[in-house]
Write a structure and sequence with these properties.
Blueprint: E1 14-19, H1 28-39, E2 43-49, H2 51-61, E3 67-70, H3 77-83, H4 85-93, E4 103-104, H5 107-113, E5 115-118, E6 124-125, E7 133-137, H6 141-144, H7 150-167, E8 170-173, H8 176-186, E9 194-196, H9 214-217, E10 222-226, H10 235-244, E11 250-254, H11 265-273, E12 279-281, H12 287-296, E13 299-302, H13 312-320, E14 324-327, H14 330-339, E15 344-346, H15 351-363, H16 365-374, H17 384-398
Parallel strand pairs: 1-2, 1-5, 2-3, 4-6, 5-7, 7-8, 8-9, 10-11, 10-13, 11-12, 13-14, 14-15
Helix pairs in contact: 1-17, 3-4, 10-11, 10-15, 15-16
Length: 402
């Protein structure tokens, strides 16, 4: 977009110091890049991150012209753990892993910037933060499933949450569902410091040339699940339900960790399910291939146990006219209502409900396809420009003097 065509653009742009020492490779980096690409029209954006996180931003940035700067937190243990698997293993062996969980933000740099923006608040300790700023809290999955990070890390994240409310002017969440979960931990008195700005209904980026049906025909009839191999994505229930279902499909998995090596947790799950010849674990693949896989699938199945602002794969399938079978979670229902979309929902902890949904698809796949295709023309889709406009308006209200 040409900045001259952007209604709120003006010169000189105000400085916005973006701090993210995590560089979450799942959705955090993509979220930040989509936001910053729009915000730089109004703000002089500089991203500050420790080297490993900065490398992930550089890899994902593509043509986004952002100023990137190496920065260091006050404590180096989490940086070393991020950069060195051997050091991380040493910490775990010596029962000190929790100490390498939080990055203590260094105070001087942000004071010069005027306004600081933390696009991924998780794991940032702001107890020494002295500037003005706001941050984004993406999801409460750690608090809902503490087994994902363990008691030591959970205690640190709870302490971090306290510093976020004490030190920041505003915390942005990506759904009303996440706001409720956050305030359940932090307390209702903080409610007026939390703003909801929904994510876009696409993970963004320029349209890519798709690889064509030849890339997916090798799988025959298949279901697809694009998600990292994490316990909260709930591959276990999907594999168990697929084994019991009458459907003849294969299952195609994409996302980090889904290569399903025999000794990996997911590989062991697949072996235990007896579905080794029906499950194709592709690992991390190009975005264009994921898009084609979703478009050509019999259905997208998303049995997730928790999300922050919704599920980008669910959105992508709905826009493509592919049937969706997804978890009946508050955040998924909120996402569907916002889009004006329908999907088949099930309790993600109830294997029987997923079996019933899959059997319904097997009995009458055309009925599922008809509903999915007919709703495409009625969808209400939210763009990253919509998101950026709301952020720009919030920044203007919070910092009129900047």
């Amino acid at each position: 977009m040409d900045p001259s065509q952007h209604g709120s653009a003006r010169a000189p742009r105000r400085p916005l110091c973006v701090i993210d020492h995590v560089g979450n490779a799942g959705g955090g980096v993509k979220y930040a890049l989509r936001m910053l690409d729009r915000l730089r029209l109004d703000w002089e954006v500089e991203l500050c991150a420790q080297p490993a996180a900065l490398a992930r931003y550089r890899q994902a940035a593509g043509g986004v012209p952002l100023a990137l700067r190496v920065g260091w937190p006050l404590n180096l243990a989490p940086v070393l753990a991020d950069q060195s698997p051997r050091f991380s293993a040493w910490l775990a062996h010596h029962a000190q892993e929790a100490r390498a969980w939080s990055y203590q933000v260094r105070p001087p740099a942000q004071a010069e910037a005027g306004v600081c923006f933390f696009p991924w608040l998780h794991r940032h300790d702001l107890s020494r933060f002295g500037g003005r700023g706001l941050g984004v809290f993406h999801d409460a999955i750690f608090f809902e499933m503490p087994e994902l990070i363990g008691p030591g890390r959970l205690a640190l994240e709870t302490d971090n949450l306290r510093t976020w409310f004490e030190r920041l002017d505003r915390i942005v969440v990506t759904s009303a569902h996440t706001k409720r979960r956050l305030l359940r931990v932090a307390g209702e008195p903080w409610a007026d410091r939390v703003s909801v700005i929904h994510v876009a209904d696409s993970d963004g980026g320029e349209p890519l040339p798709l690889p064509g049906r030849a890339a997916t025909q090798r799988f025959g009839r298949y279901l697809v699940m694009p998600a990292v191999a994490s316990p909260h994505k709930n591959h276990r229930v999907l594999l168990a339900a697929l084994r019991r279902s009458r459907g003849p499909w294969k299952l195609v998995l994409t996302g980090a960790g889904t290569e399903a090596h025999p000794q990996s947790p997911l590989g062991r799950l697949i072996a235990q399910s007896g579905l080794g010849d029906r499950v194709c674990g592709l690992g991390h693949v190009a975005k264009a291939l994921v898009t084609q896989l979703v478009a050509d699938a019999e259905a997208l199945v998303m049995p997730t146990l928790g999300e922050g602002g919704g599920s980008f794969p669910v959105c992508e399938a709905i826009v493509a006219g592919t049937p969706v079978i997804a978890s009946n979670l508050d955040v998924i229902a909120e996402q569907l209502e916002r889009m004006g979309a329908q999907a088949t929902l099930f309790d993600p902890r109830n294997e029987d409900e997923l079996v019933a949904a899959l059997d319904g698809l097997a009995r009458d796949p055309e009925a599922f396809r008809r509903v999915a295709r007919e709703q495409v023309g009625r969808l209400r889709l939210r763009t990253w420009d919509d998101v950026a406009c709301e952020f720009t308006a919030l920044l203007a209200r919070l910092y009129p003097d900047r």
